[in-house]
Amino acid sequence: MEMYNVYCDESCHLENDRQPIMALGAIWCPKEELPRLSQEILDIKNKHNAKGELKWIKVSSSRKDFYFDLINWFFAEPAMHFRALVVLNKLSLDHKSFNQNSHDAFYYKMYFSLLNKLFSPEHKYDVYLDIKDTRSRLRNRKLKEILCNNVYDFTGEMIGKIQNIRSHESHLVQLTDLFLGALTYKHRNLAGNAAKLEIIKLIEAKLKYPSTLMRSTSLREEKFNLFLFSPQIPAPVQKRD
Fold it and tell me: For residue 55, which of 190, 168, 201, 132 has the smallest C-alpha distance?
């Protein structure tokens, strides 16, 4: 089976961060292509004399051309794929009614929804998540159990491993951060950074479907796949006479 590496990141994922949305994203590519892809990103960084990690928080007018080149490269590279899930109206989540009164349970559901749509039984996958806190290892173990059970992969033949990685160790984790940053900036209706707005405009111009980051794509979209999730609202309690 062909081996794929999947690189994941998340934004606004904490329960009490008072953010109106939550976003999870993943970039995946054939493992055999990884050395070439990483070198090409490094070449773009060297061309622009870009030091350190490429991250959304670093986007500025002086670095705009660097990020433009990265985005153009991604959309022109057939080996690269991106999928994101955006939770809308996060402040209206009702964990008591739908998630066993647990934000962690909701977190696993969303990661499951993000990843299970990109897995194919014809391939094998190693999944790498940007490390966030000391509980990350336990979360990874639970996530792998849920994903494997869903596809009856009880021997780990399809989903090889899910492990943490620090963002500075992977250009593709950093690129995932960039796309998630653009999504969350758009969905939070922010407008204070002109360079970020131009990058969002470029991404939307590259999309095959109607050019907006504010709606879900077709599930069949393989280059830049986006799913917007709206929380369920509990049914009103019926009063008895």
Answer: 168
